[in-house]
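Discussion board: Methods & Data

I've been asked by a reviewer to show the raw model output for two of the constructs in my manuscript, not just the figures. I'm not sure how much to include, so I'm pasting the format here to get opinions. Each protein appears as its amino acid sequence followed by a line of discrete structure tokens. Is this the kind of thing reviewers expect to see in a supplement, or should I convert it first? Here is construct A:
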Amino acid sequence: MRKCLSLLIPLVFLGSVYAQSGIQLELNTVIEAEADGDNYSTYTFEATKEQPLGFFIDAEFTPRIIVVNSSGNSIFDSYNYYSSPIVFFPPDDGSYMTIVSSRSGDFEGSFSIEMQAIDIPAVTYGDVVERDPDGVDTYLFTLDAMEGDVVNIYAMSEGNNTILRVYTLDGPEIVKDDGRGPGANPHIRRFIFPDTATYLIALSATWDPEVLDTPVTLYVDQTEILPITSEPQTIFLGGDKAGDATTEILVFDDVNADTTYRLIIDTEILDRTVIIDVEVYQEEDRLVKVDTRGFFLRTSADFPARSDDRIFFTLNNFTS
């Protein structure tokens, strides 16, 4: 059976580690150390419930920290955390241990670690937050979201190369972007929050320069999913104003397993330097990828549904 979909486009050792005596970390105190090839170094610290703590680590290796509570349970892991500082939200008052190691496993070289209590402003849907340059490399925000909320999170700046990342409070990055908006500004498009929770948003400089030295504006917009159907739909990619994006996300919910679908793409961009890239995903599996340049007026691709789960279509506009 075939159906058509159409688009018109212009650590296991943690329990025993806590029993070891670590160096005490105090607020606003820099500790310098040397990694001697052991797997990790340990530090203990006191924390207050829900007072965010920032760990500033300057190292000759890519640092990773794991936070362990007094019961010996790992409650935070920065393995998939890529912003600075590394932020920990204590769930309770009390004593904790942080284990400093290397993300790559090569725990060698000098490093320093400092812990600071930091204030992180909360944002809500519809907020527009302006920040003047102050020489930092990351602005942090928290956002309370409900399971299934759909958001566009994007930033505008004329002089910075920036990246947006969203983290869960126990460490992992769940989505990022560094250039889908106007002027290669970051734009996280139609992201669907997986759980009802508080999330951490990090807006960081990437390179040249490595600090935020011009004004930056952050936008947090609640939106809706964009469904794809058998009827033609017109999708515009690109633009030069806040909210425009070179990417779009569509979803198809009326999915039947073991059915083959056909994606039809018509373009009205007669420019061979413009490339339309379409990727089709179900869960984490890519079903098909289609690349088409502007001088191809019609492109199609067939793909089988592997289950009844929702299918995502990611459209990207590139210039070669």
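Construct B, same format:
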Amino acid sequence: MRLRMQKMQVAAPIKIVFAVMSGEQRPRSDRKFLQFETRWRGRKLQMGESVTFQAPDRISYRWTMGPLLEVREEVMLEETGAEKTVMTFVGRFEPPKGVVGWFRGATVVRRVLDRFVHNYIAEGKLSAEALFVRVGVAPIA
């Protein structure tokens, strides 16, 4: 099941946006495995994901642990000017099995994931723009 494609214009160079979205100025490797805990509807969820960096314009995520195992997401970056970048998110997930699972995926899960992604890329946008205002130059590749 596809998630909603989301685009956001960022007033910062692609290298700064990549550094912010990857969490590192220069990722030490092409792949990172993350484990973290999040809360949803009062429950703690153990989450895990494999993150693949393709500098300077793509970060791919694959969930390895959590309530939905078949979740694949990608953030693509496109430089649209000297100090402007478009951040595009695409993703998909496999809903739980059966008619009820498919219906819950289409009506609840997709909406929750879309909202989470919107907040994630909006935070990335604000952080990248704030970093660019502070430093005024893109990190060296």
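Answer (T.O., handling editor elsewhere):
This is acceptable in a supplement if you add a one-line summary per construct. For B, something like: The chain has a mean pLDDT of 89.
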